[in-house]
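pasting for the record
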Amino acid sequence: MNMLYKILIVRNVDSLFFYRRYLPVLKDMPLRYLFEPWKAPLPVQQKAKCIVGVDYPRPMVDHQVASKDCMKNMKAVKDALMGKGMNLMVNEYLLGCKNKCAAKASE
């Protein structure tokens, strides 16, 4: 289940009480930003005594960027499958994934 879907699920009355009770760092966060506190402007975060990156973790993934990257990679795989033999394409794709993972690990 992706994070965007989780954000949409929790936006109901029950989760409001859950957030306020079990995430005390967000207790003073305005309702508008309660479910996505990283979108609150700095003055709002300061007033709520909840600075994203200090009191509350920053998002691990920018979902719009990740979604665009995923779509681009899926299109590349589709295009490669349409233009080459299946076995050759799969080997190239796996090699590319291995190289990307190695590059990210070295960062």
